[in-house]
Design goal:
single chain; 380 residues; alpha+beta; 2 domains; nine-stranded antiparallel beta sheet; four-stranded antiparallel beta sheet; 8 helices; globular
């Protein structure tokens, strides 16, 4: 069976496309087999929702009168980057407030913008003949700025570590609270719903792919930072952090429900983002990969009790066991808890399905494929 993007989009325009979410398609393939399921289904929708620290937003404030070249910028007390043009900035999700108490950062500023709230802007610059003003204090909102768009250098990890702690003290990490002596384990992936697990070698996903981003439409802009194709695989899926995506989308089309600032105790601030990628069923092989279930997807368990970038691997577990609430690894039983929301991942996949089924979202052909080779380097 072979199908083209144009054939699928024509069916979408006529509201005849058959669209299933990634978890729905598992039972269909079990019941009817890959070949028959591929004939029946046109698009599979995926979804994920969780902390994506390498995220942020570009904003253009517009010029004041007299004009200013901003080199020091804060938004609600959170430092934004001042090294762009006069009134352009980039605010990162993990930048924290300079106010006493903390707990608020760039991710919260982005959430507040999406929610339509007013943001307190304080900026200064050196002054010059063409930019005579040296300081400004005012309020902005999504309605008053020229542009505000999310640009995330690294989102949607293909898979991720399972974290536990061998030390005798509690650790506060980006993987949440890790209790001493292997008393718990945390993980962060939507498993069988996750976009890059359903298309593990990016056969249908590339630069220009239209996606669900933060409740609105977005696009894949490039391969994400730390893009890696060298990870070990089981059932054709990497068992650890591997491929990633750089994403872009207009904040004005987003929904606060899927863009949430986070305060991770003992670590810092971040941004939870909902991302959904449609996978066109172009052939039987694509269908087969989309039918993978949590019991067939494995992740490595790492010991975060060792302070090293090359943490010891204690074993490998599947997502069905992780979602059960406990795993056995190295002869030890550990309680498990997710850092990402499976409920919201399902919501993302379902909303994307509804958009496509109701002729509100057509598929785009990638303008260029993402790399087939990539490895991660570190500082020396």
């Amino acid at each position: 069976m072979k199908r083209t993007y144009s054939e699928i989009n024509e069916k979408i325009r006529k509201r005849k496309a058959v669209v299933l979410t990634a978890d729905e398609v598992i039972d269909l393939v079990k019941d009817k087999g890959v070949e028959n399921a591929a004939k029946e289904v046109d698009v599979v929708t995926t979804g994920t929702f969780g902390a994506m620290c390498s995220s942020g937003a570009f904003i253009n404030f517009g010029h004041s009168d007299p004009p200013i070249r901003m080199t020091n910028i804060s938004l609600n007390g959170v430092q934004a980057y001042g090294g762009l043009a006069a009134v352009d900035t980039y605010i990162g999700a993990t930048q924290v407030t300079d106010k006493k108490g903390g707990g608020y950062g760039g991710g919260h500023v982005i959430e507040d913008l999406v929610a339509g709230k007013k943001i307190h802007l304080v900026a200064s610059g050196p002054g010059s003949d063409c930019y005579t003003r040296k300081s400004i204090e005012t309020t902005i909102s999504l309605n008053t700025v020229n542009e505000a768009y999310m640009y995330n250098p690294r989102n949607v990890y293909q898979n991720y570590a399972v974290a536990t702690n061998s030390s005798d003290k509690t650790l506060q990490t980006y993987m949440g609270k890790l209790l001493p002596n292997f008393r718990n384990a945390t993980y962060s992936s939507a498993g069988q719903l996750s976009p890059l697990i359903n298309d593990p070698h990016l056969d249908t996903i590339g630069v220009g792919t239209r996606i669900f981003l933060g409740g609105g439409e977005g696009y894949i802009a490039w391969s994400g930072t730390q893009f890696n194709t060298k990870a070990d695989e089981v059932n054709g899926v990497p068992t650890g952090g591997s491929r990633t995506l750089a994403l872009i989308g207009d904040l004005r089309g987003m929904n606060r429900e899927y863009v949430r600032g986070l305060d991770i105790f003992g670590y810092g601030t971040s941004l939870a983002v909902g991302v959904g990628v449609p996978i066109p069923i172009l052939n039987n092989d694509v269908m087969k990969r989309c039918a993978i279930s949590d019991g067939e997807i494995f992740a490595k368990v790492f010991d975060y009790g060792t302070c090293s970038s090359s943490r010891p691997v204690l074993g490998t577990v599947n997502y069905a066991d992780l979602r059960s609430g406990k795993i056995e690894c190295g002869g030890r039983m550990m309680r498990t808890s997710p850092l990402s929301s499976y409920k919201y991942a399902k919501n993302v996949a379902q909303k994307l399905k509804d958009w496509i089924s109701n002729e509100k979202f057509e598929l785009t052909v990638p303008s260029i494929p993402l790399p087939k080779e990539g490895s991660v380097r570190g500082l020396r």
